[in-house]
Amino acid sequence: MGEEIRYKQVIFSNYVKTSVKESDLSLRTSKIQLKIPCGCDGVVLVKNLYLSIDPFILALMKNQELDLPSFTLDSKLCMPGMTAYVGFFKFCSPKKGETVYVSAASGAVGQLVGQFAKIAGCYVVGSAGNKEKSAFALMKVDLLKNKFRFDEAFNYKEEQDYNAALKRYFPDGIDIYFDNVGGKMLEAVLNSMRLNGRVALCGMISQYNSLEQPEGVHNLINALVKRVRMEGFFTSDHYHLYPKFLEMVVPLIKEEKITYVEDIAEGIESAPGALFGLYSGRNVGKLLVVVARE
Amino acid sequence: MGEEIRYKQVIFSNYVKTSVKESDLSLRTSKIQLKIPCGCDGVVLVKNLYLSIDPFILALMKNQELDLPSFTLDSKLCMPGMTAYVGFFKFCSPKKGETVYVSAASGAVGQLVGQFAKIAGCYVVGSAGNKEKSAFALMKVDLLKNKFRFDEAFNYKEEQDYNAALKRYFPDGIDIYFDNVGGKMLEAVLNSMRLNGRVALCGMISQYNSLEQPEGVHNLINALVKRVRMEGFFTSDHYHLYPKFLEMVVPLIKEEKITYVEDIAEGIESAPGALFGLYSGRNVGKLLVVVARE
């Protein structure tokens, strides 16, 4: 007979319609016996120490007809790093001297894409921000330039006109756009793309939350006229590249040529708040919840 | 001293705002001396026998900031055939057994894409139509099925709901979309795309005319979730493939394995009308104007 323990759960109570609300998630305390059922040889009990909080979770919480895969075990293993690696090197086909724009650049994936772009010899600009103009947004922009060594960075919330902002940072246009946000920013980028540009569709965080109807992109004719390749990808389709990823990244980490910022919330009770914060840009870097320290 | 002749010109009088209007073009009769200027050895006088009327002309008639190339001499040499070849084989990467949808399928490019798709062992459905439900639209649909051997064809003007129409013809989804129209049809197709689908952005005829503001595509998240590759292309970038194109197409024409329909208007006076007709779907196949018979 195993030990009976009390534990806390975050319950997914309602399908999300537009924005995730507190009432869509609830906290519950339950009891469980830490016992492996009889006849289950070779089975182990697993204790989760961390939860990964990712923008994509909201898409899974909506009752909509999208062919979304379930989470797999793999998607807790270095996902942001592999996403940055696969998305940038496989889907953006970077060449030395090209211009790269990364949105949501202070996030888990974006911060690495920018560093990979610098290693590939590109000029890279990142945007970040949060719902309010704040010292916090300033800190994110500062982090992009001074910690992650982006060539330029800006707070997109301070820009009235995305087209003008992009013209300022990319007077000769953008070769590569690593898109983490979709919507109006994607539309503006298409106006600034250069001939034979590439857009990796990695995330559309601006479209997951807050909108009854997703924003329309009205200028896809630019993709035609400028011969732009736009491609969506899921990291889980490319795990055969994992050894190559490690081969590249491990020495770079050891030599401190790439760096990383994590944003850690304490206790499973903080998971709903961490998720709400993610959609209003309150995190910096990879967002985690510590469930237990050991 | 060369012979002085009277000749007719179609003059491009005004930049087009939304739809092309009769007042945007005018007919003029002028005089010219058929004489090569002195000192110009090796120069020849050229007499045009045919004009090519293409959907893309309207984009060149609008005073908008798009990086559009000027027409080149090459773009009167087999352009629709090369466009179908390059767009389908290079940008759609077809595999035997895949499902292919072609919009504006009775046009100069579409009719060939459908036939190439059948040769590649694909299931192919085309849509055509014109502004009014008419016997003419019926004739186009009939042509697609019975002359060009598409598996299915439909008049998009008779469909209230493009999503429902595509579900009917592609119950298991679309692998390849050869897009000649853009706008709302592209949006509907994205809902029906299969995993790892490909969209060749060849034309956006629905967006060139009649619209103050281009239609928005609101569901690009499908391109992300379904890992779809969307890519714009210009045939003129791929003329190095011309020998390969001929190698494939010439035997197919000789063996009557591919066929072709042209829509020929008589006399340069008919050029403006032919252009107006193109945007209301009044042509079938490659639209030409005969300027002179010899």
Automatic annotation (TrEMBL), chains A, B:
Coiled coil: none annotated. Residues 108-249 form the Alcohol dehydrogenase-like C-terminal domain. It comes from the Eukaryota. Gene3D superfamilies: Medium-chain alcohol dehydrogenases, catalytic domain, NAD(P)-binding Rossmann-like Domain. This is Alcohol dehydrogenase-like C-terminal domain-containing protein. Keywords: Oxidoreductase. It holds the Pfam family ADH_zinc_N.
